[in-house]
Amino acid sequence: MDAEVKEFELRELWRRYKEEGDDSARERLVVAYSPLVKFVAGRTGARLPSHVEQADLISYGMLGLLESLERFEPERQIRFETFAMQRIRGAIIDELRSLDWVPRSVRSRARAIEEANSKLEHELGRAPTDAELAERLGIDEEDLQESLVQISNSSILALEELWMMSDSSGDRVSLLDTIEDESAPDPQAALDSSEVKDRLQEAIQDLPEREKLVIALYYFENLTLREIGEVLVVTESRISQLHSKAVLRLRSKLKSAAA
How does pLDDT run across 150-203, given as a tens digit for each residue? Predict the structure, then answer.
């Protein structure tokens, strides 16, 4: 009964806000849905360096929530939570990008590794080894591994940010958003992005087995890099390297498929 009452109250708040422009209803909707911002900020912050403050992420995410309230159309029969979470995450990512806190040298190194990996995969017909990749880059394997750790530590959401799309409505969706979730209340979003979903699934299947496992455990089982290291009985640093290589391979494959 409590849930029914709450649902009724929310519908009435939406009606007052959308039909009457009631500012007090808008404020109450902000309060009602603010836990979404904390949830998304928490999930985002778990994959960012420790110096990025949770409070800042929540502040950025509130901008996405406010945008969602303004643009949401209740008559479309789509759950607001589904609609808003993408925009909250997008607002956080946009703000982090604008701050440009990732060193240019790390960005440049990531591009170089991605390009070298793509060329070697094309030439060899398989994923290159670390030794082959290091040789193509003109560095030793130790330098390559150090670079991969730096890239992993400075990445913003990595796989979630691989392919951010927008259309005339301004909607944003990441690759992770396109993977089918049988429990999701709005399957239409997955159907609309079926081509992207297929590309991602194919690219993941082509990864070397250990990299594929790292991606699955990190993004779909929500394990931390340290926990994955315990599962695979290797160091957290090694998992960071595998994660970075997997993301760079996926980025390269998806760019090639879109070309």
Answer: 777 665 544 554 444 444 444 444 444 444 444 444 444 444 456 667 778 888
Pick from 236, 209, 219, 230: nearest CA to 153: 236
User: What does the DSSP assignment read for 141-154?
Assistant: HHHHHHHHHHHHHH
The pTM assigned to this predicted structure is: 0.51
Q: Which residues contact 222 (CB under 8 A, 6 or more apart)?
A: none
Domains of the chain: 2-100 (1.10.1740.10), 104-159+191-258 (1.20.140.160)
The CA distance from 220 to 215, in Å, is 8
- Interatomic CA distance for residues 149 and 132, integer angstroms: 18
Residue 173, classed as helix, strand or coil, is: strand
pLDDT in tens, 9-44: 888 999 999 999 999 999 999 999 999 999 988 887
